[in-house]
Design brief:
Layout (H helix, E strand, L loop, with lengths): L3 E4 L2 E4 L4 E7 L8 E7 L6 E7 L4 E3 L7 E5 L5 E6 L8 E8 L6 E2 L3 E6 L1
Parallel strand pairs: 2-11
Antiparallel strand pairs: 1-3, 3-8, 4-5, 4-9, 5-6, 7-8, 9-10, 9-11
């Protein structure tokens, strides 16, 4: 079973930045899609950003222009650069990955808290 590990979460003031990292335990094969979801207690999990093996990206409207998703040189790694953070960005952020077109594997999540 693939294990995804996130890091980089924390507490920041509004307007600050954080960089989240994610790596898969299995590096022999590559994932077609990797992305970041976030969830606030009582709300549904939403896709923040996704990236394909070909480099295509997509973002939630609420983070366009502020967040950037990228893949590392190592296989099955992904980053999320978050700039100009807002209090409404506060959530648990989850790394996700898929071999084909669905997200089959999930990380445990990392807390991001933005204070006003």
């Amino acid at each position: 079973q693939v294990h995804l590990v996130e890091s980089g979460g924390g507490l920041v003031q509004a307007g600050g930045s954080l960089r989240l990292s994610c790596a898969a335990s299995e590096s022999i094969f590559s994932m077609n899609i990797m992305g970041w979801y976030r969830q606030t207690p009582g709300k549904q999990r939403e896709l923040v950003a996704g990236i394909t093996s070909g480099g295509s990206t997509n973002y939630a409207d609420s983070v366009k222009g502020r967040f950037t998703i990228s893949r590392g040189n190592a296989r099955n790694t992904v980053y999320l650069q978050m700039n100009s953070l807002k209090p409404e960005d506060t959530a648990v952020y989850y790394c996700a990955a898929g071999i084909r077109l669905t997200y089959d594997y999930w990380g445990q999540g990392t807390q991001v808290t933005v204070s006003s």
